[in-house]
Structures are given as structure tokens and as C-alpha cells.
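Format notes (please read before filing issues)

Several people have asked whether sequences and C-alpha cells are stored in separate files. They are not. Every record keeps both together, in the order shown below: the sequence lines, then the C-alpha cell lines. Line labels are part of the format and must not be stripped during preprocessing.
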Amino acid sequence: MKTALIHSEAWRDFDYGPQHPLRMERLGLTWRLMEAFGLTSLPGSTLHRPEPAPEAAIARYHHPEYIAMLKACNGGVVPPAAALFGLGPGDNPIFRGVWDCARLVGGGSLLAADLIARGEVDRVFHFAGGLHHAVDQRASGFCYVNDAVLAIMRLRERGLRVAYVDIDAHHGDGVQAAFYRDPNVLTISTHERGERLFPGTGFVNEAGEGAGVGYSVNLPLEAYTDSAVYLPAFEEIVPPLLDAFKPDVVVAQLGVDAHRTDPLTHLQLDIQGFVGAVRRITELSPQLLALGGGGYDLQNVARGWTAAWAAMNDVEPPNDLPASYAETARSAGFRATTLYDGPVAIPDEIQGAVRDYVGRQLTKVRETIFPHHRI
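Then the structure lines:
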């Protein structure tokens, strides 16, 4: 088995702003924790530094007028009409180097796709990627260029059949939209229900259009869904669909914001549950291209993606965070001193309501989606 990790220290050059919840330093914290555990020098694994994606590669999906606007924003000054493209104060701020940042993220995911398509690796992790909300003509949800879409398109150009599995707390709406009519790309998203969380989509009846009906799959989750509920629900949906679809490659978006302490969401997964889902995705994938995604509590991001990378390499690191990482953890305000979480009890009445909700959604998926795959 050959694996690859994609990372660049260029994240230091970019900043969404001091009040923005997406902190670029989460990438450096993750890298340093992987390094402290010895996970950046594993046998059979290679490290790759991405180059910025060529404009032509981004234009395979994103509209020329939108690209022109991103380029105009690169100096950090707000051009006229930027708001028409979702750019400006708020979720998608204009900061110095925003176009450079978007190109680098896109380049990392295209590199990951090329490593898979050329047969150089079996599993690859680009944890700076996974910006799944951007659409062809608009930024959305902290995402400027949809690197997951670019990677899937690159794999499809190489003739590979692709399944996309998204475990971020937010619905993978941008990826779903890109392939909504395409029966050659199966998109599966598990996420907090759209009535309660951005982007307000991801209902079971969003099942695709035309030839793509049945190839967009959504499993919405009630607030307070924990690992004990999530993992069995995941098992009922994802393995049978992947088995029926038979992808050549799985592209996985591994947002960590379903964690119980994430400040923007209301799910209750622990690191163990998150990594449990990653392990299952890894086991089910003939080849795996893994991307990062959401995550707004820095300690969860570093611990979750470090544990995910270990799982992709069939490695079980010790639970205690390495002593060499202690000062980094303190300076970043970590409260956790272990890779995995301790138990937290969910009250029975809440657990019952959560189980009831997910049970209804599973029934809808089986009724709405499974017949299209002869399951």
C-alpha cells in the first residue's frame, strides 16, 4: 500500500481575518501534531508540496467572470460588484492573496487526483482541501474554489468512476450541484439537517435530476446526534451504496465540524466516531482521495485529521499527545491532552429523539434512493 500526504507551509501567507471562524493556523497545528506522532515519515508514504492550480484548470468548472473577480480581489481591495459573486464582508471575505490561496487549495487537490490517476498511490490526504460549498459562479461558506469538484473532474477525465462521501457537519451542496445530473458520480453527504444549519439544503428528496436521479444521496441528522447513533446510520447507507455503485476511486471530504465542541454546529461526534467513519471509508475505497473541510475548534481539527491520517495508513498512535507537542498545544489553547475523547452522556430523551429522526431519514433513503441501485 502506498500513501501520500499533501501539505504546504504557504498557509502562513493567508488570513481570512481575526474575527473569521476559519483559522488557517489549523493546518500548521495539524501538520505539527502529525510530525510529533511520527506520521509524516511513515514507510511507504510520500510527502508532496502542491503548486498553485493553473487558471485553465480552475476554469474547467468555475465561470470566467467569477475567476476574473477573484483575481481582481487578490490585492485585498473590494472591487465593485464583488458582492454579486458572494465576495465581501462576512463568510467570504476579500483578503490579500485570496486568489493565490484558492489556486493553492485547488492545486493540492488536483495533485492528489493525479497521484491516484497515475497509479502512484492508493490513498492520499490533502487536508487543506475539501472546500465543498463554492459553486461555478460564486463563493459560498468560506469556500472560493471548489477543489473537490476539480479533483473529481480530473479523475473523470482519466476515465475513473468516482464516489464522493462527505462527513462534514454542513451539507456538501457545491459538489452535489456540480454532478446533480451525472450518473457517473455518486455523491453521499451526511450532515446536520438543513432547517438548522447552513447551507439550508441536503434533504433526502434532493436525489438528482435526469440521468442523475438516485445518484445524489443525503442523510440529514438531528442536532445532538452522537457517535453511537451516527456510526450505525452511516453503516446502513454508505457501504451498500458503494458496493452497488462500484467506484474506482472514493473522494472523501473529512470535515471535523461534526465534533461535539465545534462552535458552529450542533452534532455530538467525538474523535473516535469521526475516525470510525474514516476507517470505514478507507476500508470501502479501492483508492481513496481524502480532503479536509470544516472544523472550527482548532484542537479538534488537529486531533481529528491526525487520527484520520493514521487510520489511512493502518497505524494506531498512542492516545496521549506527544510531549514534544505540549508547548504548541498550550499556545493554541488546547484543552485536550489526548488524541481521543472521554465519554459524555447524552440524556435519554434527547438520544431517543435523535434516534427517531435518523430512523425516519434512513427509511426515506431506502425508499427514495436504494431502488435506483437495485438494493
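For reference, the curators noted about this record: The first helix runs from residue 25 to 36. The chain is about 35% helix and 10% strand.
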